[in-house]
Amino acid sequence: MDLDALAGCLASSACLVTQTTSGLIIGMLLFLVAVGLTLIFGVLKVVNFSHGAFYMFGAYFAMTAYQLTGSFALAMLAGAAGTAILGLIFERVFMSRVYGADVLMQLLVCYAFVLIFDDVVRIIWGPEFKSMGMPSAFQVMPLFIAGGVVPPYYLLLIGVALLAAVVLGIGLSRSRIGKVIRAAAHNPGMVSALGINTGLIYGGVFALGGMLAGLAGALAAPVRSLTPGMGFSVLIESFIVTVIGGMGSILGALIGALLLGLIRSFGSLGFPLFTEGLMYLFMVIVLVSKPTGLFGREAA
Amino acid sequence: MTRTRTPGISRRSTLALMGAGAITFAAPWVARAQAKTIKIGMPTILSGRVAQLGTSSRNAVMLEVEKVNAAGGLAGRHIEMVIRDSKGQPQEAARVARELVNTDGCELLLDGEASSGSFAVHEVARDLGVLCVHTCSEASSLTADPKQHIPNAFRCVRQGIHDSIVGGSYAASIAKAKRLKKWATCSPDYAYGRDTTGEFTLYLKRFAPDVEIVSESWPKLFQPDYTEVVTKILQAKPQALYSCLWGGDLTSYIDQANIYAMFSQMEVFAVNMADYTALTVVKNLPKGIHSGNRYIKTFPATPENAAWGDAYKAKYNEYPTNWSWQNATAVMFLSEAAKKANSADGKKIAEVLKGLTIRCPFGADGTVTMRGDDHTLVGYAIGWGTTIPQEPYVPEVKAGDWKTIFELEAEWKKSKGYT
What we know:
heterodimer; A: mainly alpha; two-stranded antiparallel ribbon; 12 helices; about 0% strand; B: Rossmann fold; Rossmann fold; 2 domains; 5-stranded parallel sheet; 4-stranded parallel sheet; 16 strands; disordered N terminus
């Protein structure tokens, strides 16, 4: 425990800016993965244990597109679009068959695909770790804001994630499709009775969830090494985020991810040997005080 | 009542004669099969996050075994390698090792496991009495601790304590020249990371006593994001950073630290940087990272080493790793010991291996020695240098002095109660 370092940081604007942006960066990437997870759970009532694989595929698709075209924008597009298509196929061909099944069966199917997807990546891209490399446009000196250090690439990352959060929030609450999705989440039988193809909605939601995880993977690719199985560690933290924020709540995922990011960022200063533990401790505190998570709703 | 025997050969005699005939005709074939082939078992990591190292170990062994077989085999016996995946799990490594000996009939073991698995395989070797050469574990205690000592196990690997002595000495000389007093460390949070960092700082402070460690970070192994670690180190404003992160963790860390311009703010000492697995993967390798040599074909700067690196690359279309040269050296030792013993018998080879010096492309002076008293490799090329972003990646390596290494290693062993 190094409370002096933590207190010193809180008293310094430079440290405060650096650590806060560091927390936002960690949080925003987590949000993109966790929001897909929570969206799928909210509508399909399935805990998609294979969600981390979409993060992994997003990173590999982006790296491949970047190597082929040299375009960062196309790399991001490939990461997001590729995983959306993969998500749609995965849902229609496999997941749709276990919707009514026991939770254990759903978990088993998802876990099987975690292993299959890892092996697919190993076969296509090889078992060794890869690096996409930072696009030259972002190989610049970091910005100094109030004495704090902020890399420009991370500003882009935070911006893209925020944009995704806003579009998703407005889209789900204001647009017709959003309303149909929410209705399907609430009462799929009634939505189906109104002549709406619920299968299409489910496939679309799964594709959207996969796309968000894939986008997170694509954004992370320039700064993280790519290995088969890389989605697993992200998945664990995403589960913590969804539990803290409340399963099925998009706002909860955003707040949960940001809180977790800040806990990691400032916790590494004050509690360097207990940073991981702090996350779980926080989750326990939230669950004890509000078992449905910060923004979760009681089951009807 | 008396039994009368029918004339001629009885049924029992016929069966006995047929059996004897079969044995007579088959025995030379069986004996030839035993004489001509010797199976060597090898548990190593062929799947999971460090599969690349296990694969490179297998490649190096096969490269050398082909040469030995072409030259007549191990004391005249053709080597057949039986290589199995342990998935990097110690219990699986032990199970595989036992199976290789008991079921597959392997007469020797090459243990291509990381430290955790090596200790498990070591116990199997202790139990079965089979000759075992560890080829990947750098944990010093595996051979330094007398409790671990068994007559049939050897370690053909660089050692953490050797690297720390050379690294500490090299870093101290830079620290004195550039007046680097405030240091930070960032290493993976498991036995290797903790031990190696502790030993490095021990010798850094010994050679440069005014050095102060102002920040320590212990990210967990295979952590995907190091942002909070990078910013924490930046807050401490050290003049130098030491890290023993490795593989994908090291490349992630470099990519993430790069965009904070960390490498322009402090001197960085990363012991595991100068390995082709990391050097060729990092797209924006900063200039001037100090690193220990792992495997590079330009150190030792001899035609033999360069030729070996090129031959490996020509065969496998990638450069060797640190685990590659160690495994290759193990096969060279076995071959030479079998020649001297004029036998492929494990016990006879073990007797000859003690104190054996062989010519080797990876030796500091062209030779390496299997030290007799603790059954470990010494005399290999060891040094530190600074990186550049293109080949040869580490153009100049300052070689470590083995005389100093031996002196300090002896002190270290005494301080640990090993002698």
